[in-house]
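Input.
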Amino acid sequence: MMINYFQRVNISAAIVPMTQSTAGAPFYTWDTSDKSLILSSFFWGYVVSQVPAGLLAKRFGAKLVLGLATAIGGILCFFHPIAAKSGWQSICVLRVLTGLVQGTVYPCVHTLLAKWVPRTERGLLTTGVYSGAQFGTAVILVTSGFIFESSMGWPGLFYLSGGLSLAWALLFFWQAANEPVTASRISKGEVEYIESLTGSNSSSQSMPVPWMSIFRSPAFYGLLAAHCGFTWGFYTLLTEMPTYMSMVLQLNVKSNAFLSRCRTLLWACSALWSVPYRICLSTEALYRSPRLESCLIRLDSGDRWLV
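Output.
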């Protein structure tokens, strides 16, 4: 999650020095409308690949899809400085493509967690995994100020994101496995333990997805509206905060990166240790109780997030 958020956030931080003549690197006279299109173009591709990504992960395995997506996204990072010379339209094309490959990340992670994380431990472990989004954002913002003031300038941020993405993808292909039974580095006892608590050893055929029942469910639309509201605020802050600090608060590149990183670090720490921690504890306790079904427990945890 950290590495993939490098690919998502780098443009939000780099768009500031890319359009400032005092940044010590190539700059471009893009207006506010151009920059808004650049920042939003990621989501044009991101929204398209969500559902197909889940189907691809089921058919070809989450390891292959996630590894390729991270590697392709890393390669695209290297082309950002080159594309910028051709105009903001070229950057938009790269951001759309980045969104397409990044749209596969969450479905693949869901698939891997379902097969690898025991039901009674999902609360705590999934919180740790998903907090990588905040920590990845914090790390890229921490390093951005130093990179912008170095001899590399803002292109260095894309080179760093691309290099780390490719290195992670190679390590992931080497070490990861789609499910415990195919992993070569864990014992038979560990495989049996995980499979007994995840049901991944079941030989029964998967049931067809009840699409019509889903689309007729009021709960589906309630969750959809809640998630849309959350992600609108989340990604607005994620993409627009560096630009706001530069244009409205008139902060320089280094101060901008410092304040952005402080906000994101606090966000990451609170996400990891405060409310989710209590949710996890209550969820694991409820799982051991025969009184509630697991789906109700997960929905209850989700409601606490909304509050």
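The first helix runs from residue 2 to 18.
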